[in-house]
Design brief:
Elements: E1 12-16, E2 19-29, E3 32-42, E4 50-51, E5 56-69, E6 72-76, E7 81-84, E8 90-106, H1 110-120, H2 131-140, E9 144-145
Antiparallel strand pairs: 1-2, 2-3, 3-8, 4-9, 5-6, 5-7, 5-8
Helix pairs in contact: 1-2
Length: about 150
């Protein structure tokens, strides 16, 4: 593995319905793999809980979010961290105008999911109008809506 240095304005941006996901690093070596994203999220209704095959860590940099993990709500502000275990229904909602946080995921699947989602689901269309595309992208990456 080589050293990675990413400046604040660098990284591939994936516009999504819950905010911009900026890929900062994808690391893979003999010890495992993980990906790091900066998420810039506006206030929006909470997406339905979903289940992904990777674990994730949400570390709040600015603003506040309510993280829902397996039916439990966690109020998180700057410096707070919430772990989203793999295969566990999870989602988040921005409290206030916007939030910025790091999302660190295990494995190498989240980046492919974000890229596919960004290409396939228009970020400026209501979720109800894009539901078919959302389900198709989710199925391609082993992600499902909780209870669906």
């Amino acid at each position: 593995m080589t050293t990675i240095h990413v400046r604040p304005d660098e990284g591939q941006t994936y516009p999504m319905i819950d905010g911009d996901h900026v890929a900062k690093a994808a690391v893979s070596d003999d010890a495992g793999a993980f990906e790091v994203f900066e998420v810039r999220a506006p206030a929006a209704p909470m997406a339905p809980p979903h289940v992904s095959p990777w674990s994730g860590v949400l570390y709040v940099l600015e603003g506040r979010v309510t993280a829902m993990v397996d039916g439990t709500a966690y109020d998180a502000g700057p410096g707070d961290l919430v772990v989203f275990p793999a295969r566990t229904p999870s989602t988040f909602e921005v409290v206030g105008e916007s939030a910025r946080f790091l999302a660190i995921t295990t494995g190498d699947g989240a980046g492919r999911f974000f890229a596919d989602f960004s290409r396939s689901v228009p970020a400026d269309r209501p979720v109800e109008e894009s539901f078919g595309e959302i389900l198709a992208v989710a199925a391609r990456h082993g992600v499902s809506l909780a209870g669906a």
